Amino acid sequence: MTLTLHTMRGNIAQIASDAAIVNLFEGVQRPGGATGAVDRALGGLISELIEDREITGKRGNNVLIHTPAGRYGDFAPKRVLVMGLGKPTGFGYGDVREVSAVAVNRLRGISKTATTIIHGAGIGGLDTAKASQAIAEGSTVGSYSFNKYKKTSKDSADRLELLNVVEFDDDKMPEVRVGVGVGITAGEAQNFARDLVNEPANVLSPEAMLDAARKVAEDHGLGIRVLDLAECRSMGMNAYVGVAQGSHRPAQFVHLTYEGDPSNTSNNIWLVGKSITFDSGGLSLKPSRGMVTMKGDMGGGAAVLGAMKIVGTQKPRINVHAVLPMTENMPGGGAQRPGDVVQAMNGKYIEIDNTDAEGRLTLADALGYARENGAARIIDVATLTGAARVALGTGNAAVFGNDDGLVKSVLDAAETSGDGMWRLPLDSTSKRQNRSNIADVKNSGGAPAGSITAAHFISEFAEDTPWVHIDIASVSMVTGNRGMFRTSGATGAPTRTLANLVASLAN
Ligand code: BES
Ligand code: MN
Ligand code: ZN
User: Fold this and answer.
1) In a domain, 226, yes or no
2) What is the pTM of this model?
3) What is the Å distance from ligand 2's center to 242 Cα?
4) 357: Cβ below 6 Å to ligand 1?
5) Residues 387 and 488 both lie in one domain
6) Is residue 183 located within the same domain as residue 281?
7) CB of 444 closer than 6 angstroms to any ligand 1 atom
8) Which residues are designated catalytic?
9) What domain count does the chain have?
């Protein structure tokens, strides 16, 4: 059941629902604003509970009050959920997303309908439209679940169907409506990416991922070009072909086009997403424990597809291309061998040091293809290295680039969307690790600085095109709850960052 969001003007105390979500900053003794209005309608009950220290406003102090019909005059909601916002200093949109996500989960099993005030727009000082957007994003992303394969235990907990974002001030309603609309689009696109990542690899083959891309193109009027392996071979994409040839399932090289500025083709950005639908490691086979999550090795492609949905909805004035080199990485009889040498589309020879470093091989030719077709800027997104997690933990993706301006644009977009990202260096010392005795470059630089050597490898194929590489192996999946992610599995990051980036570069 997906959560539906609406907006409504009015006094939340007078709007019937199974639960009204209000809030309190830490340290506030007498709530004001909408929470104050609810407090008054309840005869000061919230203030009383604050005095009793049951309600503290601390983050995580979320108190549910039961207010059945008729017990408090004409108070309409059946429950009130008071969400603790923590200290007001530093309270931001990321907090609004998280609080919204936690709130919808708290109500998930007990309410069908809920209303919410706009967190942070009062003494938090946040912008109404952006806070409304954050509420829509947080509650959409926060109410996500993937239970299509749970036939018997289908979550009875998933009862929350409707969330109404309520604002008292009529003048603010246009901002609320716009913000919520933008947030729904963004949150649903992120959840779409999560669905693709969570889908098991027996179902999500390269062909199934192609179907998903076709659907995105159809729904949003995007151009689509699909190359099969023979075409890729004839175009010289032997790095990509080498990876694909170990699988029985046909590879699909997919190029989507959004024409937001058709008369100005050089005003473009190319989003390249690693799209390995399963990474066994190939002949450099992964150990079992490293393989279980490898259905998610198309997380970069999924985020790019999600971003194209947002782009296709918001229609910025810029041309956006998506390139998804889809394939499995399998150790079949036709698989490439460690020690093989392949020539990429840009002419460079690559020594295959490790067939498990397959993502960079597929990206090498995807970047070659993008450059050949007039890319002015390239962003690649990839679950590329386990080392990203070692270097940064699970809070940040690793960012690299050959253009400081473009890197900054990406980091700014990430900041706006709340996706953690941190730049790492492309230092010349690490670069040496990719040297090959027999070819121009080898595809693995050994253990030290594994994310950096992978980025160096890709930079050989970005050449002089402004390029940013985002290694999302650290953030693509979560275990347990974190922030607005309330269920283990895919995060869909950095779907919204990519769309924000595109919007920020549009003119
Ligand atoms: N898809 C993996 C990276 C990965 C690991 C993503 C864990 C998410 C979680 C990638 O293709 C890979 O296997 N990388 C190797 C590179 C090595 C062979 C140079 C790695 O990280 O070990
Ligand atoms: Mn691999
Ligand atoms: Zn991989």
Assistant:
1) no
2) 0.98
3) 13
4) yes
5) yes
6) no
7) yes
8) 286, 360
9) 2
Query: Which residue's CA is minimally distant from atom 14 of ligand 1?
Result: 385
- Sequence-distant (≥ 6) Cβ neighbours of residue 45 within 8 angstroms: 39, 65, 72
Last residue of a domain, one of 168, 192, 216: 192
pLDDT mean across residues, the chain: 97
How many residues belong to the chain?
507
Nearest to 12 by CA among 102, 81, 108, 71: 81
CB of 382 shorter than 6 A to ligand 1: no
Distances from the Cα of 390 to the Cαs of 45, 75, 355, 474, in angstroms?
49, 52, 21, 8
Instruction: Flag the least confident range among 56-65, 150-159, 299-308.
Output: 150-159
- The three-state secondary structure class of 392 is helix
Q: Is the CB of 387 under 6 A from ligand 1?
A: yes
- From 292, 356, 475, give the residue whose CB has the most ligand 1 atoms within 8 Å, as the site to mutate: 356
Q: Which domain holds residue 473?
A: 232-249+256-505
- Which residue has its alpha carbon closest to ligand 1 atom 3? 385
Decide whether any atom of ligand 1 lies within 6 Å of the 385 Cβ.
yes
CATH of the domain at 83: 3.40.220.10
In a domain, 86, yes or no: yes
Q: How far apart are CA 320 and CA 309, in angstroms?
A: 11
Quick: pLDDT tens for 127-186. Answer: 999 999 999 999 999 999 999 999 876 666 678 999 999 999 999 999 999 999 999 999
Instruction: Give the position of tokens 């919410």.
Output: 116
**pLDDT tens sequence across 193-245:** 999 999 999 999 999 999 999 999 999 999 999 999 999 999 999 999 999 99
- Ligand 1: distance of its center to the CA of 385 in Å? 4
